[in-house]
Amino acid sequence: MLGLHHYLLQRITALLMAPLVLGHLAVMIYAVQGGLSAAEILGRTQGSVPWLLFYGTFAVAVSIHAAIGIRSVAHEWIGLKGVFLEAVTWVTGLGLFTMGARAVWAVTFA
Amino acid sequence: MMSDFLKVTIERGPDARNVRQVFGVPAYKSQTVLDAVSWVQQNADPTLSYRFACRVGMCGSCAMMVNGVPRWTCRTHISKVLDGNAVTIGPLRNLPVIKDLVVDMDPFFDKWIAAEGVHHGGLTREDQIAPVDERSAERIEANSGIECINCSVCYAACDTVAGNPEYLGPAALQRAWTLLNDTRDRGRDAILAAVSGKGGCHNCHSIGSCTAYCPNELDPMSAIAGLKRETTKSFLGKGR
């Protein structure tokens, strides 16, 4: 149900997310110190390639990581197999990526 | 202090959850769980089916669920598992029940084969006996897992097996790990491929019930972690 590729992808995405989560939390805490408006945030993120890469990588990693995790849960707790299990995996991954990518694009280049 | 009689509840039949019989079993000193089951079979109900052979913790045939926990019953003192003066004994979890306390071990042993838990020899009878360095890191790693008695306690304890019937389970994967570290075994690629499949080592969630309940105090969870490392190294190294 989980092969070597699933395992590796989930570990690699976890490795990617660990520093990204810390970076996200650190910036969030730092940025709101003196009060910060949505316009000010957008002023910093709009047109910024580094923020696009930072949160874009985050969205991709989350999508892959969560899809594989949900795959395990769906198989072991609901007993999903075969095409249904593949469908749940891909719908979860692509769904999360679509939502994440849309949000990242909205605050950087839209 | 134990009372004179123990209340022994035994789960009977293939549909064990629904059929529970209670027996009053005389208590005595140094009594094992297997002793209590044998007393019931010899004195109360000769139709009770169960397995045992060596009675000294070597053959691995007498494992059962004792108060919901998998144990080797011949080496488990009943005084240590009593709840008051009562104990509940059932067939091993995660395996099909044949009758009463007897489970079908076929899935368990089939998975040993599926994990390539068989010796892959590379020598003929004409060759010299292969030297084994007892102090090498690989041999120490292999030695830590070779005292497995195939009792299936780890398999019954494993929640991943319960949720994922294709999962090879701790005993089969630990066997694969010992062979991978055995210099005499030439099946490295076959083993790594076998433990990387759909039911392979990567399904393990490292819950650790195998290591917690192994009656021989082996550590299948670490063996499985070793397989995860080796399959990863092999993949990254060879690009396979």
What does this structure look like?
The complex is a heterodimer of chains A (110) and B (240). Chain A has one domain: 3 helical TM bundles of succinate and fumarate reductases (Up-down Bundle). In chain A, 85% of the residues lie in helices and 0% in strands. Chain A contains 4 helices and no strands. Chain A has helices at 4-31, 38-45, 49-78, 82-108. By secondary structure, chain B is α+β, with helices and mostly antiparallel strands. Chain B folds into 2 domains: 5-103, Beta-grasp domain (Ubiquitin-like (UB roll)); 106-238, Fumarate Reductase Iron-sulfur Protein, Chain B, domain 2, CATH 1.10.1060.10. Chain B has helices at residues 33-44, 106-114, 137-143, 153-157, 159-163, 170-180, 188-194, 209-213, 220-238; strands at residues 5-11, 20-26, 63-66, 69-72, 86-90, 97-99, 102-103. Chain B has a 5-stranded mixed beta sheet. A two-stranded antiparallel ribbon of chain B has the order 6-7. In chain B, strand 1 (5-11) and strand 2 form a beta hairpin. In chain B, helix 2 (106-114) runs parallel beside helix 6 (170-180) and helix 6 (170-180) packs across helix 9 (220-238). The A-B interface holds A 1-4, 6-8, 72, 75-77 and B 160, 163-164, 166-167, 196-200, 202-203, 205, 228, 231-232, 235.
